[in-house]
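Working notes for the structural subgroup meeting. M.R. asked for a predicted model of this chain before we commit to crystallization trials. I am recording the input and output together here so anyone reviewing the notebook later can reproduce the run.

Input as submitted:
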Amino acid sequence: MSFFQRLRLALCLLVLGSAASAWATDTFNTSTQTLTIPDVVLGSDVYTNVVVRLGNVLALGGGPPYGTCDSYAPATNQLTIPSVQVNGTTYTNVLITVDLSLLQVGGHIPGAASSTCYSPARNVLPLVVDQGPSALTSIAANEPFVSVTVCSPGSTSACQTIDHVLVDTGSVGLRLISSVLTPGLLAALPQARDSSGNALAECVAFASNSSWGSVRIADVQLAGETASALPIQIIGDPIFSQVPAGCSNNAVIEDKVASFGANGVLGIQTFLQDCGTACSDITLTSYWMYWICPGGVCQVTAVTPDRQLSNPVAMLASGNDNNGVVLTLPSVAATGSALVTGTLTLGIATAANNSLGSATIYDLDSSYGNFTTVFGGQSYYDAAFLDSGSNALYFADSYLSSCSNNGPAAGFYCPPGTVTLSALNQGYSNGNAKTVGFSVANAEALFTGSPNATAFSNLAGSPIQGYFDWGLPFFFGRSVFMAFEQRYTPVGGGPYVAY
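Returned structure, recorded in token form:
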């Protein structure tokens, strides 16, 4: 079967009319089964005008081209292609193996820095902690953001890349604020429906707010990989303008970027769905998440897991990088930083860039996704979690004074000076344990002393009663692994966290 035929038959095919000039486009000759490639990145070098024979088509990403040049991995004999042209049609983000028996190389540029190639690993999203989206009225603090590309299912003409989407290891599913989507894309995203054909809406309670909006279907591109036909939530979608009391009574509804604090949230907790079997049973009224509103009258409805919001990484089509994620952030100075960059890497032990190394494994309770933390003589048994979506460490300490209830430091701790503390983290059942040291600074002093800072490693606050919330400060200076339930890794199946 020819390369062209394979692409035509693939269900996840995304077609572009033509490639943008920013990307170098390969050409495939269906008669000779050869690829002609303008530039290939190999290690730190770039090779130009390369000709190879086709091997096997492994994956089709679709969406806008990821990178500007092909990237070759000798260990796996895999070539990642941002854009390839076949008989006048352009296909994007293709992963193949190649036959090097007819290898031709026109030129060689030592050191990729001397070329214009941009060829990141297809499983890595750049992550940034900065001031947040432009719609915010104040500087964001300790919010890690990535960009995601959303397309109408099976289309590349209705696509949009959304920046400043919060990375949240404490929730599941992609949720976007309606106002950041173009009207054309919003109209092109089909509504998700229950088994009776009713359009679905969802109410989700976070720690300090709730979100209400429609459930729609989209293709979601993360770096160079795609999750197809994924249910996502559109917060503040005009088609569900009336918020039922059963949702608004739980917490303040925040459906604007300025109040929500981000253009959306990418929930990558260790669960596969955001509610699972609990929302399949209508008698479990404590789970008032999914709703239908026939005739404008809203009511709670049962939704099976396959129709619920799913973990976007776990649903990646490639199958190679869908067992977990790795968040990597550098250390931050005690006075804070105005900008921090890191990475969100897809997969655990699926490539050279996401190896577990010497990380310690802490297994999680499969029902709640928690482990145990012992702090200040109290055991938070099955009540501790790693949550990149929380902007501070949240725990109870009667010796730490709270900040004033007025101003940006409200809800945080304000000790007279920086306090050094420690806690013991334990796996839920595997016996692994390790002491973690951390610091708590005066939040008011941090905010006034570094008014342009967006990242703080020593910010802490009052807790959700009975829980120990290891928020974003925990992630600074570490690579943190989140292994998904029902997914295999070389050290065993998830769910677990490791660092």
